[in-house]
Design goal:
- It is a single chain.
- The protein has 406 residues and is of the alpha/beta class.
- The protein has helices at 29-40, 83-92, 97-104, 108-128, 146-150, 182-187, 191-200, 239-249, 264-273, 314-320, 323-329, 336-345, 356-360, 389-401, and strands spanning 12-16, 45-47, 132-137, 155-163, 173-180, 206-209, 217-222, 232-235, 254-256, 277-280, 302-305, 351-355.
- The strands form two sheets. It has an eight-stranded parallel sheet with strand order 9-6-3-2-1-12-11-10.
């Protein structure tokens, strides 16, 4: 993939913040200020959620295109675009650009030219300040998006995506995304996936692979059912898919999102590919001492999070515990978020990621997403001025104490 993908994951740390959570929810001045703050705070990474066009509820995990950038992120959506620029863009992105224009209509390609301009400038600015970007590849796409319209033969019919029942979700999770016809993908040499990862690494330096277990086996729900209870497991291509991607693009820096009910086969594929998995400090307490989330058990080849976009914030989680449970954690009840931040920074895991809500010490009001809930997600934003020099200095100190700076 070239120099941009020559990423060596050393001991480092970063912040999780989707661009929609910037003040105003767009790129532009606030994005540049955030990069400056990251550098001041000694952070090496800015992690974000998928940057494709979200669905009608704001979810970036049900994107209407696996390839297009979201025009809603544009700081200057009216910036001039010439016919020559559009022609050059189509020539450089022949696999998907015409299909996106057909789906989205007039102005779609001009918006993509604008997106490339703004994103490329921001990424370059971040790199000059020692900050690199971590993206997110959602395993599924929208059931009403451009991909299923352009390549219907690559998707199966009669079943939809979701997750099985678990202790937190008695009915499972009914996502409703279309599932892949894996034999059809295999017949093309997994071309759609190759192009999808190629596109991802035009924008970021590393990528989290969402729902990694779904590349080994996935939960298929008969169409028409309202819950995921009566779904069943189906096999996915696993190593064969990633071998095809690597053959085309080289060795890509990926993170395996391996949370949930995970089987030995999923861990085997993760380790065969040499990918870091994920541990979350909320789950380090009140669980068996063998839990991978407990700091004593963190592998070096892992990414440790204080919390994630799918969980409550550190403060919200701590406040939800009983007094007895809080005491058992051993965390400072006055600032449990900073106790977890220090724990993450000193973890054996090579990369530590902290959602900005945990740096700010926000409670449940700062939560980004409630899995399984359709409404009321994805809208949180911090305010201009929240990220102070004092917060940057405190985070830098914790980072240096964990030997992660630089």
């Amino acid at each position: 993939m070239g120099e941009d993908q020559d990423v060596e994951l050393g001991r480092s740390s970063g912040i999780l913040l989707h661009p929609t959570s910037l003040p105003g929810g767009r790129l532009g001045d606030e994005a540049y200020r955030f990069v400056d703050w990251l550098a001041e705070a000694g952070q090496s990474w800015w992690q974000m959620l998928p940057i494709g066009p979200p669905d009608e509820f704001g979810s970036p995990y049900r994107t209407t295109s696996a390839f297009a950038g979201s025009p809603a992120l544009l700081a200057d959506p009216a910036a001039p675009v010439s016919a020559a620029e559009i022609e050059d863009f189509v020539g450089a992105k022949p696999y998907w650009s015409a299909e996106w224009a057909h789906f989205e209509g007039a102005g779609a390609l001009a918006d993509q030219v604008r997106f490339e301009r703004e994103w490329t400038a921001l990424r370059g600015y971040a790199r000059e300040r020692g900050v690199r970007l971590i993206g997110d590849v959602p395993i599924y796409v929208s059931d009403i998006g451009a991909d299923i319209q352009a390549w219907p033969e690559l998707f199966s019919h009669g079943e939809v995506a979701g997750a099985p029942p678990d202790p937190l979700n008695a009915n499972g999770q009914h996502w409703g995304n279309p599932l892949y016809d894996w034999p059809a993908h295999r017949a093309t040499g997994f071309r759609w996936w190759v192009e999808r990862f190629r596109r991802t690494f035009e924008h970021v330096d590393m990528a989290r692979v969402d729902h990694f277990r779904g590349f080994v086996s996935y939960w298929a729900i008969p169409a028409g059912l309202k819950t995921a209870r009566n779904g069943h497991w189906r096999r996915a291509p696993g190593a064969e898919l990633f071998a095809a991607i690597e053959a085309a693009l080289g060795d890509l820096p990926l993170i395996a999102e391996d949370l949930g009910v995970i089987t030995p086969a999923v861990y085997r594929l993760r380790d065969e590919l040499g990918l870091p998995g994920i541990v979350v400090l909320h789950w380090a307490f009140g669980r068996p001492p063998t839990s991978l989330h407990a700091p004593a058990n963190h592998p070096e080849n892992a990414v440790v999070y204080t919390s994630t976009h799918d969980t409550d914030t550190a403060v919200g989680w701590f406040d939800s515990l009983t007094r007895k449970q809080q005491a058992a954690t051993g965390l400072d009840p006055a600032e449990p978020n900073w106790a977890l931040i220090r724990m993450a920074m000193t973890s054996r895991a090579r990369l530590a990621i902290v959602p900005i809500q945990d740096v700010l010490g926000l409670g449940t009001e700062g939560r980004m997403n409630y899995p399984g809930r359709t409404y009321g997600n994805w809208g949180w934003q911090y305010h201009h001025g929240d990220l102070t020099p004092e917060l940057a200095a405190r985070l830098r100190a914790a980072t240096e104490d964990g030997r992660r700076s630089g």
